[in-house]
Amino acid sequence: xxxxxxxxxxxxxxxxxxSFGGYVKLYDYTNPHDRLHHxxxxxxxxxxxxxxxxxxxxxxxxxxxxxxxxDSAMDAFRLDPVEMYIDFHFDRAELxxxxxxxFWGAADWVNPTDVINPWDFLHLSSEVEDYRVPVLALNATYxxxxxxxQTVLIPAFTPTDLPLPAGVTLHTPDRSWRHLQxxxxxxx
Length: 188
Prior knowledge:
Elements: H1 2-9, H2 11-15, E1 19-29, E2 39-51, E3 55-66, E4 76-89, E5 93-100, H3 128-131, E6 135-144, E7 147-154, E8 181-187
Antiparallel strand pairs: 1-2, 2-3, 3-4, 4-5, 5-6, 6-7, 7-8
């Protein structure tokens, strides 16, 4: 992950120019029925991207300072890569490789065809990167006429994040190539 981060952040040397952006937000997610899951904090999001017509890169990182729960004297600081990928553009195809969100379907929130990214039920909010977990994937799309064929390969299983009671653990597949996942979508 560190080598991919270094590659993406130094991408402006390979792609010529880079575009930088981001935001700072304050958040307060209150759960009146469970004060242990009350979240108060700040997020600084940093984004860098570049594209030269044939290839491009995108990286987005969150730096969060969370005030913890009322019973904890410790604040939590996290630096998380949200998305980091490299794109290749061809006449009739696109290829994306890296950590990414992949959304299928057009409905908001509950969408029966949106099955690629796991959910994060620990950090639900109104922002997509708060409630979805990006996956490391190879995402290829081929275009012809008015149609497209998208193929997604995910090399390792990524579980949904669930708030479990103390002492309860889930048994999920290990993160190995034996649990390769994939999907194909034909869209017109």
